[in-house]
Amino acid sequence: MTEKNGGHKSVARSTQTQRNPFPFSDSNKRYHTYDYYLRRTFGGKCAKIPLDAGFTCPNIDGRCGVGGCIYCSGRGSGDFAEEASVPLRQQYEIVRTALSSKWSVERCIPYFQAHTNTYAPTEVLQQIFEEALTYPGAVGLNIATRADCLTEQTVRMLSSLAERTVLTVELGLQSVHDLTAARINRGHTYAQFLDGYERLGQASRRIGRCVHLIFGLPGEDDDMMMESVRRVAALKPEQVKLHLLHVLRGTALGEMYERGAYTPLTRERYISLVARALTLLPPETVIGRLTGDGMGTALLAPDWSRRKVSVINDIDKTLYENDLWQGCARECADVV
To answer: How many separate domains does the chain show?
Structure first.
């Protein structure tokens, strides 16, 4: 049996799984993976379909700034979606068909990813989101936005949607430090983020809130990044996404990098930061992402980020070799 399964490696994986102390896992993963959450919630794997509804952002159109965040591409993080000029239903079908060659797409989650997806009149938003729920295989809905773009009417509409589907609202925070937010042209403060985050929670316990953090932002050291993690952990969000700061061609950050004003994180440092962050986050919080994707043709740095699977494997290895798991630092603090 050892030989049929590749010998040594199969035995090692089995041992890691059996010895895994993390409760929200049925594999060797020592953190609450998005895949585990999806299988427990929907009964099987789901395909997340990125969509571009053609929205903009308040720090692009002048409401609170111009130019957007210094790291953001012209697609507003929607680089992997079809162009906004393509009708949404067609975008959905194109991506769904492409993904069907890799895995089953019986269950899908329309993901409004590009720019700020609550930055429009509520009646416009409701029509778009209601339509997405009718797409073939749609079992939930993910909406990426900013916490300062949640009007009372929009929050009520989202609360109503959450009664009829599995709704996740993704809030880009990136850092709790207002100096960093100003440096990256974020356009809102941490206090504004907290206001939007808390109003969503008060409106409905069925709205899943996912907080995004970025490691490697200009001017931040390891202690500052971990402070962001600690404050987010205290909020006990349903999900967290951890991102590596990519340097993309054509962005303000790209210009900084090319003139030597910004140095990206090394692979080793990023892996160490993610491992530390996981130990601080509540075990119940789903980890939606451990690193991000940069479009291959636009990526300037870091080049090592192109090997995403290898990076994730080494995060797993770091956790295992140091006997760490999601929330273990919190457990030790509780004991003390």
So the answer is: 1
**2 part of a folded domain:** no
Whose CA is closest to 294, among 258, 249, 246? 246
Looking at this protein, which amino acid is placed at residue 335? V
Instruction: Compute and round to an integer the Cα radius of gyration of the chain.
Output: 20
**φ, ψ of residue 72 in degrees (nearest 5):** -85, 135
Contact 267, 304 (CB under 8 A): yes
Structural contact between residues 286 and 237, judged by C-beta atoms closer than 8 angstroms: no
State pLDDT tens for residues 83-129: 889 999 999 999 999 988 888 789 999 999 999 999 999 999 999 99
* CA angle centred on 171, ends 206 and 240, rounded to 5°: 75
Q: Kindly state whether residue 122 falls inside one of the protein's structural domains.
A: yes
Q: Does any domain span residue 16?
A: no
Q: What is the pLDDT of residues 224-277, one digit of tens each?
A: 999 999 999 999 999 999 999 999 999 999 999 999 999 999 999 999 999 999
Domain that holds residue 314: 26-335
* Residues 240-258 as b or e (16 or more Cβ within 10 Å = b): bbbbbbbbbeebbbbebbe
Strands (E) located in the chain: 47-51, 108-112, 140-145, 166-174, 208-215, 239-244, 247-248, 286-289, 299-301
Residue 10 falls inside a structural domain: no
DSSP-derived 3-state class of residue 82: coil
Kindly report the CATH number assigned to the domain that includes residue 316. 3.20.20.70
Quote the pTM value: 0.92
Other Cβ atoms closer than 10 A to 56 = 16
Determine the straight-line distance between the first and last CA of the chain, rounded to whole angstroms.
45
